[in-house]
Every structure is written in structure tokens, then in C-alpha cells.
């Protein structure tokens, strides 16, 4: 785990299981229809309960680059922020990914949350290169902490594997 202070707030990178995080919100790498079958989304519903899928079904469609919020069922977190990142090859992936992160951070702020944990959005079955994902996520979070008045005190990236952590650490070390 590594941390940096930006404007008195904490930016953190770590390896772990995002479903076990006790932050106010965890971010789910979601698809447009919030159908949580595989990857991070599937793990969240398996551990948090069917209520997460039921609430997601009521929301319905979320455009790529946007986010929606539900409760977190029986997880330690209070909320799930469902961020829809891009699929590799659909064009404007970096911009869409940045918008998904900003949408998530704004939702967290709207709900007056203090802590949030992100996975490496779009780097799994959506196929975006891990180095690009790390660059966009780290830089977007750092810019947000530098430039916005926010209730968030901690933005963390909870990464599933060593390879993702290495890419995130490279970008983290540059800020």
C-alpha cells in the first residue's frame, strides 16, 4: 500500500479484494445495463446480495462514461457506484474512462461521502491496456483532489493483481 497527500486528502494504491473494503463506496466496473454477471460486478453481487442487482435493474441503462449509485447490500461499504467504462476499440477510450471516474467522484461528493475505492475500470474483459487505465485513473483522481472542493478525504485504487499494481505505481510515482 502506498499513499500520497494532495490538498490534505489521501490518494492510495493497494492490492486487495475490493468487495472487502470498508470505504463509504466501492466502485463497480459496470456495463451499460448494470447486469452484474462476471468480473468485479459479479463478485460484488455474489458477496453483497441480490438487492444490488435489483436496485441496478430499477436504474436500467447508464451511458458509457457515466455512473449510478446503489446501496451495497451486505458488503462493508455503504454504497456501490457503478461506473461504466469503455470497451477497448470503441474510440475515445481515455476520454470515456476519465468521464466514468469523474462521474463516480461527483456522485460520491453529492452523497457527501468521505472515502471511495476504485478497481482498474475497463482493464478486465473490456480489454483496455492496464498502463492506459492506470494513467487515466491516477491522473483524473489527482486532478480532482487538486482542483475540486470535495467531501472526499480518501480516493483509493484497490487492485486485484501485481501487474495492475505495477502500472498504477508507475503513474502514482509521477504525481
UniProtKB/TrEMBL annotation:
Location of the Macro domain: 1-175
SMART domains: A1pp
PROSITE patterns: MACRO
Matches recorded under PANTHER family: GANGLIOSIDE INDUCED DIFFERENTIATION ASSOCIATED PROTEIN 2-RELATED, MACRO DOMAIN-CONTAINING PROTEIN
Pfam assignment, any one: Macro
InterPro entries associated with the record: Macro_dom, Macro_dom-like
Record protein name field: Macro domain-containing protein
